Amino acid sequence: MLAGGVSASMRYYPYLQRPFYTARGEGPYLFDNEGNRFIDFNTSNGAAILGHKHPAIREAIIEALDAGTIAAAETYHHQKLAARLCEIIDSAERVRFASTGSEVTSVAVRLARHVTGRKKILKFDGHFHGLTDTFLYRRDESGAVIPSAGGVPEAGADEVVMSAWNDVDAFDAMIDQQGNDIAAVILEPVHFNAGCIPPIDGFLEHIRSRTSAAGIVLIFDEVLSGFRVRLGGMEEFYGVRPDLSTWAKAIANGLPLAALTGRADLMEELIPNGPVAHSGTYSGHLHSVLASIATLEELSQPGLFNQIEEIGKGFYSQLQDTFDRHAIPARVQGMGTRFGIYFGRTEPVTTVADVQNHDHDLNRQFYLGCMDRGVYFHAYTHTGPPGHAGFSLAHTDDVLGEALNVMDSVAADIARGRN
Ligand SMILES: Cc1ncc(COP(=O)(O)O)c(C=O)c1O
């Protein structure tokens, strides 16, 4: 039987005390085993940017099947996809493919440690970079860095420096004190893993200038933010160029593909040209590569990201109105296709500490009420900051309108219960 009843810990739904069992997906919908239909606001943890069962993805997978499901083989398709990524991502001079976001964030840090000859990395509180030992550290109440999960070496905490997102002074203090030992600064350019916490004006530019001056490799982890707000990632949106970037999820619309991109002089330190290890039997699996080529083709339609921005703005402001109308304390923050709902808070959220006291009771009532009426949000946790939500290109105005009606009725019920 499955350990803990799930194949991945984050599939456990704490408000249900079990996973949400899904039978299939189509467009903006998921269907459960009983055939009930749900408007999907999880979209495969953010991977299904085009929606489920997209015809172009289906065709790509059939092409890969017909080629014989070959893994561990280089093809011209890999070259074509790498070339396309270098066209659309400003900082991408070289590309390596892998299967998961966790792999590429770890390889990015390995590269940074090699080229700088330094050991430490600086990461921001709450930013998620995957489940390898490299990143499984957090700060305790006293500010000390400690392992955030069992089995993670305590000694590794000495190699992790942590700072608060959007706190320029705290970041500067860390760089002033330890900059000469820091190999890499890694960050989510928008902290989407805690809903949607954008950088304050000038924060990314400041980090760029301090890391350049201190010889630190700057890594943008675009696994969740990539292909959501701009085709060229958040670096295009903010106009800040990292040294290395990591991509996954929406890059192949749900097929397992990740990419590490960045400066040629760094990337060419990978074996065979340099000494830094990265390989994998399934790296750049043909199914995923062909799905990615198809996904990027769909995402390259002129004007698409402006359209997404407009749809998102309208949807987030209507959702905020819904909560306000029913006097439910909740703040909606979103960019492009991803958003967070902060229950129990009405002020802007600028750092994860703002939502440590997230109102999970209200969150539980809302999510379970929505689920009863055919709208699916995934709860990643029942303590601390909330997780994230999003929509896909298959969520038409009608679908979003239907979801807003459901959310309005759930909010009305919650408000009645509170009065
Ligand atoms: C920003 C970010 N980095 C890395 C990862 C890890 O990616 P994966 O789940 O593909 O290992 C995630 C996954 O949610 C993520 O959101």
Q: What report would you give on this structure?
A:
With 419 residues, the chain is α/β, with parallel strands linked by helices. The protein has two domains: 3-54 and 304-418, Aspartate Aminotransferase, domain 1; 55-299, 3-Layer(aba) Sandwich (Aspartate Aminotransferase, domain 2), CATH 3.40.640.10. It is built from twelve helices and 18 strands. The strands form five sheets. A seven-stranded mixed β-sheet has the order 6-14-13-12-11-7-10, with helices on both faces. Strands 3-4-5-17 form a four-stranded mixed β-sheet. A hairpin with a 2-residue loop joins strand 15 (330-335) and strand 16 (338-343). Helix 2 packs antiparallel against helix 9 (286-299), helix 3 (76-88) packs parallel to helix 9 (286-299) and helix 5 (168-178) runs parallel beside helix 6 (203-213). The relative contact order is 0.16. The mean pLDDT is 97. The site of pyridoxal-5'-phosphate has 14 residues, from helix 4.
Task: Note poorly predicted spans.
Answer: none
Bound molecules: pyridoxal-5'-phosphate
The portion of residues assigned to helices is 25-40%
CATH secondary-structure class of the largest domain: Alpha Beta
Quaternary arrangement of the chains shown? single chain
**Count of separate DSSP helical elements:** 12
Major sheet characteristics? 7 strands, mixed
Name the CATH architecture of the largest domain: 3-Layer(aba) Sandwich
For the largest beta sheet, what order do the strands appear in spatially?
Answer: 6-14-13-12-11-7-10
CATH superfamily of the largest domain: Type I PLP-dependent aspartate aminotransferase-like (Major domain)
Note the gap between the termini: 45 Å
The helix-strand sequence is EEEEEHHHEHEEEEHEHEHEEHHHEEHEEH
Number of strands: 18
Bulk shape: globular
Strand content: 15-25%
What is the mean pLDDT? 97
| SS-based class | alpha/beta
Fill in the CATH topology of the largest domain: Aspartate Aminotransferase, domain 2
Backbone CA Rg: 21 Å
Number of domains: 2
